[in-house]
């Protein structure tokens, strides 16, 4: 599903070395990969590169067989809209939309008809066990619940790739485990490829594979 | 996109109701004022044009003379010419109606000539009145508007005044062709000449040319017959002259409305700018979710357009309401006296309504343009980081600011365009732009100066000003424009009022003033009347004043000839030249500033004035300031005027009292002697007070608009601080954890609000002074051709500035209050 070859990124052209280079990664449909690494090594940057939110200096990114490196900003935006799902550490649930509307947001961007969008968002909320609160406002929810809404939103439009940057970073360990379990399960169920950045060894252990990012590239974590 | 557009963008307007309501109100106000002014003037000009066409009828050329009239021998000469098929003589009199306030326009016409030239003016006798009643003296025919206004029906008697004598006219029928909006009366010309004591005089002759005669050709060949001061004009040219008179006034009101609309656009800008800053993370996240740059920009522009459309539609409705109200209260000339005797009707005009609604949309879109561009330029990867602080661009823009100031300086030197100070208004816009552009630089400079304070609150406020000047700049910018305009108007009005007061003192040196009617109407004082007043006990001396309206050439509107005692240096408010000048071969005349601007005359020039059918040459001895006649006035000494022109009538009488005489007693004696229905007497103090009251009333609309602009600016500060306080909840929660009391955080906000307002007010006052200079020296001079002495109401402006800063502090504090009501713990944990 996702194939990355010899990806390199440097912020400062004058710096002696790139932030990272020689990054290779293959993720199959229904597979979830965890990426770990020291703070500041560039994990978030790598995810941003995969999403086209950050430019890359060299290398190739292929999603569903299509080369993405070099796409312009708008083309990438349209691609993100249909093929990507995101889960953020800070949730980013819009406070002025109900839970159902938050989940339906990607469908709105895709111009899915109102009725269908509502139906699919409802089904997705049911999947994360929040069906009863579809018309509730985000301010009444706990962090774990908010992240479940975010998971529903990341998958509602059946993306090919789900990117999650420390999705449990703002949650206590007990809740984190449950949310992570839900995320992995849902991604596998949807047949998407999942890339997850985390600091938590416990979280990483639940993924199908664990890779460590260094300046020289990605290597399997023993 | 549509669902997203509706729910993410348009719905956000509802989430900040205060800011939205203010932007809407500002746009609606601007649109409404502009539309109302246009509707009123369109209707008035329309009716005015109809009146001119009615009078012109089917004529090809018009012979127009001074208000005093010209010899009717000219009529016979013209009628006999082969080029002329038909000629219709008219004596037009603005008849004073004794005991009533206004006057009535009476046309003395040759009934047998009307059908061929002005059929619409034909009088139609009422039932029971003879066929040839129109030829009888003592009868008048009133148009529908006139009879309705005067409350007279056929058979009733209308009293008119000539000199100080009352005459009775019997209403004998109507003028059905005049239409509903024209208040006028028609009577036989010979009867009118006799009644108004103008034997053998006409004021106009309308000509229909023989078939096959070209108009220009006829104009040239007939011009040779005309005595001086009488001109031959095409009807359109005459109409254009008169429409030109009110143009500058109309443009000025339109500009005020444009300024209100500009303030609206500015408010949209500042609220959108702050909303964009606050919604940065939301936008970054939407971009991550796949919203294109252009989609984001479109969404934000749609917000602005929606605001503009709603405001515009509200404004169109409000504008019609305002226009209807203005028609009811002050009539079609907005109290300026340009369109007396017209009763225009308000109509809904789809095209202007649509155009003004579109202007509202344009203001909304223009206001959102920069914020939308900024939002589209945002880098999502960076903005998504939690610590990213909304950074509003506040780099100093000195180059742009100086360029605008330079442009303003150049523009203020350019002449008027078609009588309208276009460049002057552009200069005002450039000064405002320069002020807004200078604000970031000034803020940065002030931030450096303020670094000295040591108190914690002061340090925090300063740190914020230094680190995030953008928010201060945007909040302050909302104040700059409104303060600049308010200060400019205050300075201009203050200068104007003081100059006017001074002028009145110069023009009204006597103790009492007596008049039979306004100078345009049919009341006048003859020598016997003047002598009678002079003989009253307590009167030391009387000085008659005579006004006549004359035509100096065929291109420009008539000017006023003012004859009064001009002997000593203080007798006229001179700005150039002298009263006592070495004797010359020619008698002396003093011209008003408008004559300099409009006729290109200067001190020392020779000026030919038509007087009693001859051209009389004068030497221009000086230039005086005239606030009463913007189309130009020539002043000559009364004795010279009477000797040269043989006209011994007077319009006003200046009465000087003996020491110890009681003004009220003398006034009463004069009224008793001359008839209380026919003359008015006022003390100099009363005339001055009335003039200043009229002045204040005519600027009332301006004051109200100023107040609205300032309130909107203040509200801008309040909304921006409310928005900022919401965004800074976390910061406040943190400060509460560190041990700050709510009161201290309130004071911090008040301090920041006061700082933002003080910066805006300071820059606004400076810009206001510059705008005032342009208004006084360029806009007023070019629009109305009068100068005034600049005078800054320093105390008032200082108070205004202090109140504004205090209100801003209060507004910022109140706006922050609700943000601080949340428990500190919740605020710190809160992500939004
Ligand atoms: N726009 C940028 N310009 C310059 N440097 C940047 C930019 N964005 C990130 N960096 C730098 O790149 C490095 C990698 O940042 P990144 O956020 O990807 O690290 P990370 O591995 O996600 O760290 P953490 O685990 O703490 O989240 C950091 O040193 C950061 O300062
Ligand atoms: Mg990171």
Task: Give an overview in words.
Chain B: Keywords: Cell membrane, Membrane, Transmembrane, Transmembrane helix. Chain B: This is FtsX-like permease family protein. Chain B: It is found in: Cell membrane. Chain B: Belongs to the ABC-4 integral membrane protein family. LolC/E subfamily. Chain B: The chain crosses the membrane at residues 253-277, 306-331, 351-372, 398-416, 422-451, 472-493, 700-727, 748-776, 796-816. The complex is a heterodimer of chains A (222) and B (832). By secondary structure, chain A is of the alpha/beta class. Chain A has a single domain (2-220), classed as P-loop containing nucleotide triphosphate hydrolases (Rossmann fold, 3-Layer(aba) Sandwich). Chain A has helices spanning 43-51, 73-83, 99-109, 114-127, 143-155, 173-190, 201-205; strands at 2-9, 20-27, 32-36, 58-63, 66-67, 84-87, 161-165, 193-197, 209-214, 217-220. In chain A, strands 6-7-8-3-9-10 form a six-stranded mixed beta sheet. A four-stranded antiparallel beta sheet of chain A has the order 2-1-4-5, with helices on one face. The radius of gyration of chain A is 17 Å and the shape is globular. The two termini of chain A are 24 Å apart. With 832 residues, chain B is of the alpha+beta class. Chain B has four domains: 1-56 and 248-391, no CATH class; 61-233, no CATH class; 439-507 and 686-832, no CATH class; 517-678, no CATH class. In chain B, 56% of the residues lie in helices and 15% in strands. Chain B contains 26 helices and 22 strands. In chain B, the strands form three sheets. In chain B, strands 1, 3, 4, 5, 6, 7, 8, 9, 11 and 12 form a ten-stranded mixed beta sheet that branches. In chain B, strands 13, 14, 15, 16, 17, 18, 19, 20, 21 and 22 form a ten-stranded mixed beta sheet that branches. In chain B, a hairpin with a 2-residue loop joins strand 7 (157-162) and strand 8. Chain B is elongated. Chain B starts with a helix and ends with a helix. Residues 824-832 of chain B have low confidence and may be disordered. Chain A binds chain B through residues 45, 48, 51, 53-54, 73-74, 77-82, 84, 86, 88-92, 94-97, 101, 105-106, 108-109, 111, 114, 117, and chain B through 1-4, 7-8, 11-12, 15, 281-282, 285, 287-295, 380-381, 384, 386, 831-832. Residues 11, 19, 37, 39-45 of chain A line the site of adenosine-5'-triphosphate (ATP). Residues 11, 19, 37, 39-45 of chain A line the site of adenosine-5'-triphosphate.
